[in-house]
From TrEMBL:
E.C. no: 2.7.1.59
This protein's UniProt keywords: ATP-binding, Carbohydrate metabolism, Kinase, Metal-binding, Nucleotide-binding, Transferase, Zinc
Gene3D superfamilies: 3.30.420.40
Top EC class of this enzyme: transferase
Signal peptide per UniProt: none
SUPFAM superfamilies documented for this protein: Actin-like ATPase domain
InterPro entries: ATPase_NBD (IPR043129), ROK (IPR000600)
Name of this chain's protein: N-acetylglucosamine kinase
Pfam families: ROK
PANTHER family from the UniProt entry: N-ACETYL-D-GLUCOSAMINE KINASE, ROK (REPRESSOR, ORF, KINASE) FAMILY
Catalyzed reactions: N-acetyl-D-glucosamine + ATP = N-acetyl-D-glucosamine 6-phosphate + ADP + H(+)
């Protein structure tokens, strides 16, 4: 069945049309995100919905929207740093303007749903999606659906405090996080975090790619050790069958083996650790998850 997904980002709105048994992308279109006002943002979304319907040749095409930030499950109101949408419900606004329903979901939750349904987490009952990009995002699915959440927080693992033992073991400073707190996991585990570690250990702020080219094993070892403890935190809180890795750092060479090793080093005795895998649907996974949500079971 054909369906559409929209990734509402801070710089672009990407629409993808999906089809086939695996819900694969058959066409896509990107426009810059209008950021002047909420009305302009809605007009950008409407433009992309109209393109999807025209391209599919179906009016009333199921279309889901993945967006960053916190989305209250009851009111639909959003809290987001990079879009002029805080305090608004995009779902309600689009319903009022277009007369039908467009589900709006946090992009990390959409990623988890996509990987649970026809992705790398297929066959696992509970799937944690862990996005290791500029920041760290998390999403969680059980039996291919979202558990109810009180306030619409996804699994905000990036802003859980770093394990004190890991900070002490590697003699790391406590870095300030973009959320305003100090010592969040994101400050050591994300792409930004990897560069923080490089700055601390090598005295140079290097990207993941630079570090790969230099063979900076010491930096990767510290990163994998700390990230392994963060994976243990996920296991202790959620005990998922499978953790699917996405985002730029999931493309690092040997990332799964490094993190399996990092997790095994800290795992509790006589427990089974979750399976770690790379995402199957790559950069399109969040959009695909939103489309699956619109399409239904
Ligand atoms: Zn934080």
């Amino acid at each position: 069945m054909i369906c559409g997904g929209i990734d509402l980002g801070g710089t672009k709105i990407e629409a993808r049309l999906f089809s086939g048994p695996q819900t694969e992308t058959i066409d896509l279109r990107r426009i810059p995100t209008p950021r002047g006002s909420y009305d302009e943002l809605l007009a950008g979304l409407e433009e992309q919905i109209a393109w999807l319907e025209e391209r599919a040749g179906i009016s009333g095409l199921p279309v889901g929207i993945a967006a960053p930030g916190v989305i209250d499950p009851d009111s639909g109101k959003m809290f987001t740093a990079n879009l002029p949408a805080s305090g608004h419900s995009i779902r309600h606004s689009l319903n009022a303007r277009l007369g039908r329903d467009f589900p709006v979901v946090n992009d990390c939750m959409a990623f988890a749903l996509s990987e649970a349904r026809g992705g790398a987490g297929q066959g696992s009952n509970s799937v944690m999606g862990l996005i290791l990009g500029t920041g760290v995002g998390g999403g969680y699915c059980v039996d291919g659906a979202f558990p109810h959440r009180h306030g619409g927080l996804a699994i905000e693992i990036g802003h859980v405090a770093l394990p004190a033992s890991a900070v002490a073991r590697h003699d790391l400073p406590l870095w300030r996080c973009g959320c305003g707190r100090t010592g969040c996991m994101e400050t050591a585990v994300s792409g930004t975090g990897l560069s923080n570690i490089a700055q601390h250990v090598l005295g140079e702020r290097l990207s993941g790619q630079d570090l790969v080219e230099r063979g900076a094993e010491q930096v990767f070892d510290i990163w994998a050790d700390i990230t392994g403890e963060c994976l243990l935190t996920i296991q202790l809180m959620l005990d998922p069958d499978c953790i699917v890795l996405g985002g730029g750092l999931s493309n690092l060479p040997d990332v799964v083996a490094r993190l399996e090793h990092g997790l095994a080093r800290h795992a509790l005795a006589n427990t089974r650790t979750p399976k770690l895998v790379r995402a199957r649907h790559g950069d399109s996974s969040g959009t695909r998850g939103a489309a699956l949500l619109a399409k239904g079971k």
